[in-house]
Amino acid sequence: MFDFLFGLLSHDLGIDLGTANTLVYVRGKGIVIREPSVVARHRKTKQVVAIGREAKRMLGKTPQAIEALRPLKDGVIADFDATAAMLTHYIKLVHQQPKRRGLPSIPRPKVVIGIPSGVTEVERRAVQEAAIMAGAREAYLIEEPMAAAIGAGLPIQESSGSFICDIGGGTSEIAVLSLGGIVVNRSIRIAGDEMDEAIVSFIRLKYSVLIGEQTAEAIKIAVGSAYPAAKEDRQTVVRGRDIETGLPKSIRVGEAEIREALAQVVREIVEAISETIEETPPELVGDIMEHGIVLAGGGSLIRGIDKLIAVELKLPVWVTDDPQTAVVRGCGKLLDDEVLLGKVKVAARKV
């Protein structure tokens, strides 16, 4: 009874705590926050200076007294204090207490958080602890491929098999789902971050120009490609430091070059999908052949990655609508479905 009343009064949240971006869904309102998972703070006092976009602009540009960092690495918490500070900031943004005297305080929110399927028990507890410290009254953890499948509208509770591949910033989550559970899954720590690193290495080796990860990400978004297209005239100007002279240098790179840079990372993702299919029960393979592979996550926006997977595996492949928000939309749907939440949660904690 009390949980029901709290649910009516509080702003329950669905959170995609991603390596690259954090998205927050508020029950009844939709996605209200979409910010980079970056925190800037003083090195000595640990006082937070900036969070989100403002902090991301500081990456690689901070003075000695300030550090700008990404508190999550490969989908798990690398810096607990920074993660807790980030979660606290976002929960307070959407769950501010009334300031007028005489009004009752808003109950603490229930929070559903998407996590990689390959995390350890210790890593799960760290996420729950961070959510409780940030002000949640209940913290439910959902595996990201399950949340992405729910967000994409796949029939996960039916006996037919659904195949989801969520290519995020730190991990690629691959899973076959049936009857409300994960039948086969694979979580590899090869995703968007590794694509950025591959572009940095390629530019350094081919042009002797040193660029940062933010520049590499901008190149990936501008001319990133996984499969040859009919028109390959996309180019972008890259500015960095000449390794030989130490002076600034501008170069122009094309789509074909960046596809070459990304080839090995994309190949490993395709191989992981292939290995997951090999482990899938034969009856479910038939369903996958009929319904295809669904791609979600920011990595699925790489031009032609769906065509490459379809050609390599000889299966239909399609990208879900707004793939970057699939996980957080799935978490949001679970806020309204207590029965399904009870089935698919991997951990739960109440204050």
TrEMBL record:
Subcellular location: Cytoplasm
Keyword annotations from UniProtKB, A to Z: ATP-binding, Cell shape, Cytoplasm, Nucleotide-binding
One Gene Ontology biological process: regulation of cell shape
Keyword Nucleotide-binding attributed: yes
GO cellular component, one term: cytoplasm
Pfam families per record: MreB_Mbl (PF06723)
Main subcellular location of this protein, as a coarse class: cytoplasm
GO MF assignments: ATP binding
Membrane keyword on record: no
CDD domains attached to this UniProt entry: ASKHA_NBD_MreB-like
UniProt binding sites for ATP: T19, A20, N21, G169, G170, T171, E217, A218, I219, K220, G298, G299, S300, L301
Quaternary context: Forms polymers.
NCBIfam families: mreB (TIGR00904), PRK13927.1 (NF010539)
Function per UniProt: Forms membrane-associated dynamic filaments that are essential for cell shape determination. Acts by regulating cell wall synthesis and cell elongation, and thus cell shape. A feedback loop between cell geometry and MreB localization may maintain elongated cell shape by targeting cell wall growth to regions of negative cell wall curvature.
Family assignment from sequence similarity: Belongs to the FtsA/MreB family.
Entry protein name: Cell shape-determining protein MreB
Originating organism: Candidatus Gottesmanbacteria bacterium GW2011_GWA2_47_9
Lineage summary: Bacteria, Candidatus Gottesmaniibacteriota
Protein encoded by which gene: mreB
